[in-house]
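Title: Request for sanity check on Iron transporter prediction

Description:
We are preparing a figure and want to confirm that the structure record we downloaded matches what your pipeline produces today. Could someone re-run it with the sequence below and paste the raw structure tokens into this thread? We only need the token string, no images.
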Amino acid sequence: MSEQARKETSEEFDERQKELAAAEGEAYQRSLRHMIEVVAHTGEMVTAGEYIVGFAQEEAEGLYHLTDDGEFEWTEPSGEENCHLEVAVADAADGRFVPEASVTATLAAHDDGEVGPVDMDLLWHPGLYHYGENIHLPGDGTYDIEITVDPPTFRRHDETNGDRYGESVTVRFEDVDVKTGQS
């Protein structure tokens, strides 16, 4: 872990809070690894600056949307959507999810052009929060996936540790085997 990513105790953040944050991060990272290694077709994660950035790729899937009248509506993927890309952004110091970042992904097929950048919305999932979207790709194949994380705009507590997540990062996952379809 880089010095930049490290969290120190302070007037705002004591040793017990540090332990609890680390435990929360460890649990989130276990859920993320499970999604990448067991649930998804493929996925990876890397540390980039103050973030851990990971992705999982699955077939396009249905999602609930909250309507204007406050009701939930289940929406199946559109006829052309054939890929669900999930992106996790976590704190490199303790592994916890980082909300409200602006996340985009671009997928470049080795033999058929580029899709994106696509905005990755925040998604609730029973296993873990993540960013994601259903998208249309030309088909199965080998892709390079570029993910950009722009800093969240939320305010930060703590004079010692609060000056974090201020830089954009871009990570590139190369030669990713993507399987398209709808679940």
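Thanks, this matches our download. The mean pLDDT is 91.
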